[in-house]
Amino acid sequence: MPLAPGPTEFQNMLLAPKILSDPRGPILDLTARYGRIWRSRTLTQRGLRDMVWLLGVEHNERILGPAHRDDFSWYEGYSFSMEPLFGRDILFLSDDQPELGREGAHRRRHRLLIPAFSTKLDGQYLPAMAQIMARYLEELPLGQPVDLAQTIKQVTFHVVAQLLFGAEPEALPQLLHWFEQIGLGLFSLVHLRIPGLPFYRASRARKMLAQYIEGRISLYRSGQAESPTFLAQLLSAEGEDGERLNSETLVSELLAFLFAGYDTTASMLTSVLLALSENPVVMLQLREELSSLDLASVLSGQLADTPYLDAVLSETERLYPPLTFALRGAMRDLEISGYTIRRGDRVTYSPYFTGRDPELFADPLRFDPLRFYQKKPRPYSLLGFGGGHRPCIGKRFALWEMRLFVAQLLLRFDVKFGPQRSDAVYFNPTMQRRDGFWGSLSLNRAAT
Asked: Fewer C-beta within 10 Å: the chain N or C terminus?
């Protein structure tokens, strides 16, 4: 079978920085030009290799479906970008790969981690989330412009850092700065520790953040402080053979969960506000649903069924997925839709393209939560948190966090979205607004 079509080598040299800076345009343009399978070139640990873009819901299933789990590897997709900063002993990279001596490693690790995500612990996690949100929202000024995107970043980072490893409030600004530096260096093409380069700054930030987390772990293990529930579960987790997670592994896991729990949630929550600002009818319908809720209950982490809010979140995930595309590595030579994919090539699926696919969604650019109102999405059509046999382990927490934040914000305040300073975005690696997202607040009379 032939290789998939795509740009020339020279064109690929111009394409790579465009994909890193804003992949949305190139994905749509090149798919319109070449069809739903095309290839570009990417740098890997083995040099330049093909990156085959497989677009559309059927290809999503071909990459993510359990029936094909042995064809693709998370590790081979992300090792070049993530391993140098997060370490090899990271959950996301622990695919079951016999040739790496890792057969069964992911499954064993997964069993150790699952108890920390149990619904039985919601009674501890959800009130803590709600209390952190309330602290930030209570401090927002009334009647003047507020950067709600920055507030969302602070809230989501505080939630995940406190719940994961008990970060001290006074340390949060510095921890957030370090973490943002890691994100900016994560997909740097130049992995040189030369002062001034993003990868150098990211490496230093990773070291400082890891040292802070190690300090918290030592504090809890010595009994000088009570461990947060999540970390307490990991510290006590024990495998069938008595295996426990060592400190190095714990740091890698906590960095991974910090990465997964902060960036995606902050990006998508900001996009929720963007969608509400552009769709006043949706805002009114959402306010009507939330008006039946008791603010005191929401502040304690309790939230009744909110099917319209859930539909708003799903529609936001469809149009504005935090990750525009995601990677895997081909573990063997494959033939897909008439084209050859070679072992060692990268394959890419795109939640962004899927959500805007006119073959899947009628009038795809229209924001319409009724697409998902009390309806389950078609399999492999909504992939903001991954899918298939290995979706995001923290997806349920992220959805709870977004539900609680939106409910608190709209129950407390009337929000007026003013003209934005800029529509510019950047990717870190999730989509973020370069100049924030601004609005002004007044007290919601119904709530008071």
From this structure: C
**Whether the Cβ atoms of residue 444 and residue 40 lie closer than 8 Å to each other:** no
The answer to whether the CB of 293 falls within 8 A of the CB of 411 is yes
Which DSSP string do the residues of 102-145 spell out, in sequence order? -TTHHHHHHHHHGGGG-GGGHHHHHHHHHHHHHHHHHTSPSSS-
Q: Write the pLDDT tens digit of every residue in 288-336.
A: 999 999 999 999 999 999 999 999 999 999 999 999 999 999 999 999 9
Q: Is the dihedral of CA 25, 27, 29, 32 positive or negative?
A: negative
Q: How confident is the model over 345-379, as pLDDT tens digits?
A: 999 999 999 999 999 999 999 999 999 999 999 99
Q: What angle is formed at CA 100 by the lines to CA 244 and CA 83, rounded to 5 degrees?
A: 75
Domains and CATH numbers, the chain: 9-443 (1.10.630.10)
Beta bridge partners of 443: 413
Q: Are 175 and 161 in contact (CB under 8 A)?
A: yes
Start-to-end Cα distance in the chain: 67
Reference 152, options 386, 404, 423, 420; nearest CA is 404
Q: How many Å apart are CA 128 and CA 131, to the nearest integer? A: 5
Burial 223-253, CB ≥16 within 10 A → b, else e: eeeebbbbbebbbebeeeeeeebeeebbbbb
Strand partners, 346: 51, 329
Region of residue 101 (phi > 0: left; psi between -120 and 50: alpha; otherwise: beta): left
Q: Where are the beta strands (DSSP E) in 249-345?
A: 326-330, 334-336, 339-341
